[in-house]
Amino acid sequence: MPRLILASHSPRRAALLQQLGLEFTVAPAAIDEQPHPDEPADSYVLRMAREKNRAARHHLSTNAAPPTTAAIVLTADTAVVAAGQILGKPADFAAGKSMLERLSGRTHQVLTAVTIAAQNGTEKSALSRSRVRFAPLTEPEIVAYWQTGEPHDKAGGYAIQGQGARFVVRLAGSYSGVVGLPLHETAALLAEFGID
Known about the structure:
seven-stranded mixed sheet; 6 helices; 7 strands; 26% strand; elongated
């Protein structure tokens, strides 16, 4: 079976990939993650997953010792989208509070793109779309949640796999996709690369 590399800093993605019973190496790649002007959210997450993958493969082929030439590289990107706007990771309390106020009592989308590629350039991607409905949130709830530290590095300012789950009234789609790696789509793509 080919060697699998997860090019992501996310411990959540690593934990989800472990659920599939796979062995893999973690080797993140950094890229510019700014959306292009007027870029649709689905195009953005697909572009991010692909660019992360290409950056990781480039790094492996030029900097690994010895160079990694027979690896399969997996990358993913997740975006929380409210009223057509991508909500990234909050920079501070004001940004986090604003995000949670926008999600309060409403339904938003969570998009996660996955890209898997071989070093020979064969590349395949999939996109998971989920809809998440939040309960109405009070200001004290938002403040208390921010103070837990959980929202600080999460897209949209919340974690469905953590304390943020208490705000979720309804989920239509992939739970693992909302966490950061849709396992159904990921397993199907991996199978195409000979990883069962």
